[in-house]
Amino acid sequence: MSAQGPDETIVLRDTFVAHGRAVPFENGWSWIASAWPIFSRAALLWIGMTLVLLVIHVAFIFLHLLGFVASMLGTPIFAAGLMITSRTIDQGGEPRFSQLFGGFKHRLGRLLGVGVLYLIGMALIFVIVFLIAGAAVMGLINATTPEEIVALGATAPLVALIFLALVLPLLMAVWFAPALVVFHDIGPVEAMRASFIGCVRNFLPFLLYGVVLLFASVVASIPAGLGWFVLWPVSVASIYTAYRDIYFSS
């Protein structure tokens, strides 16, 4: 051990599967179940991190466009810190609050690269959706008959579907990218490619995963949203457990 302590980002590479492997359908549930101990072993720490990130997010909202840019760029960096925290707990170590900012210490440049690509992708999606929605709004303004108004109003669900179709691949590319960058020192483009492929190969487990989290989000929202102080950390830890399951062979 060096005077500065062990490298928090070292992970054994001998069983690493660069672009992920397909896992059974039921693993979508096991990712969440395995995440619960990671949360419960340091519940107060996770809640504290959640509160800090909530404050940062609110501050970004008040900064408007600048805050949006900062949020997109900062998401992979903070996510990397949360992955480091999850790994520390998973391996029986003692997590520290400072690990929340671990992405600023480890692989910052590459994590920032993921953030830049995330920002560019999201900006392009907004432009496309705005152009489509803008054309519909102009048509609605110029509509002269009830039939035209109804027809143009029906484009709203179509716009929503287009947005979802565009944003989903981007989210798939970003989902595991922070963990792949911070633990394996992979470049931004390759990490996002590997994340996307890993998600595609596990479409069915992710379907189960999404259904379970959707139900859990409804339950978490009932007591004035307080349940999110548990659900959000568990969800974050589940990204780590899914990464460990998909990108490492048994």
* Main beta sheet: none
Shape: globular
Binned, the helix content reads over 70%
In terms of DSSP E residues, the strand content is under 5%
Order of helices and strands: HHHHHHHHHH
Query: How many domain modules?
Result: 1
Kindly state the number of beta strands.
0
Structural class: mainly alpha
Low-pLDDT windows of residues: 1-5
Description of the molecule:
By secondary structure, the protein is mainly alpha-helical. Helix content is 74%, strand content 0%. The protein has helices at 27-40, 43-62, 64-90, 108-141, 146-153, 155-175, 177-184, 188-201, 203-221, 228-246. The two termini are 28 Å apart. 31% of the residues are buried. Mean pLDDT is 88; it is low at 1-5.
Topology diagram in text:
Blueprint: H1 27-40, H2 43-62, H3 64-90, H4 108-141, H5 146-153, H6 155-175, H7 177-184, H8 188-201, H9 203-221, H10 228-246
Helix pairs in contact: 1-9, 1-10, 2-3, 2-10, 3-4, 3-7, 3-10, 4-5, 4-6, 4-8, 6-8, 7-8, 9-10
Question: What does this entry show, briefly?
Answer:
With 250 residues, this protein is mostly helical.
Describe this protein with a few key phrases.
250 residues, mainly alpha, 10 helices, 0% strand
